[in-house]
Specification:
Elements (H helix, E strand, L loop, with lengths): L1 H15 L6 E2 L2 H29 L9 H20 L1 E4 L3 E6 L5 E6 L3 E7 L2 H5 L3 E7 L6 E6 L1 H19 L3
Helix pairs in contact: 2-3
Length: 171
Amino acid sequence: METGTSENAGQTAGQAAGEPVWIGLPPGLLRMRRLLLVVWLGLLTIGTGLLLGLLTGPGWAAFALLPLAVLLWGWPMLGRNWRSWRYAERADDLLISRGVLWQEETVVPYGRMQLVEVTSGPVERHFGLASVQLHTAAAATDARIPGLDPAEAERLRDRLTELGEARSAGL
C-alpha cells in the first residue's frame, strides 16, 4: 500500500514539472492475447502433428513442434508489447506511446479530433474490454487505445469529445 502512495506522490511531482502522467493498459488485454495465442497455436500444433503423422509418418510429425516454439517465443513477446502501450491526457492533447523495438508516440491534439468511438468485438466483450478509436482531420494522426475497461473507455471517450468540442469551438 505504501508503494502506491509513493507512486502517486511521484506522479504528482512529475505532473507539476510538466511531465505527462502515463496510464498503462489493464492486464485483461494481456490475458486475452495470451489465451488467443495458446488457442490458435495449440490447435495448429495438434493439427500439424496429426496431419503430418498420418500422411507422412511420425518423423515428419516433429515439424508440429514449430508452432509450439512460436508459442514459447510469443508468450514473453506479448508481455513486452503489452507493457509498451500507455497513454497520457495533457492539457491540449492526448499522447499514445507503444512499441518495443520501434517505439512510436502519437500526439493527438484535442481540437483536431473529429470522432471518438468505443468498440468492442465478441472476444473483447467476453474479457470485459473495449477499445477507443480516435479519428482526426488528418488520417495520419488517427490513433487507437486497445484493451481498456469499458467504463474507462466510455469516460475517455466522453472527456475527449468534451475537450475536442471546446478546442474546436474557437476555430
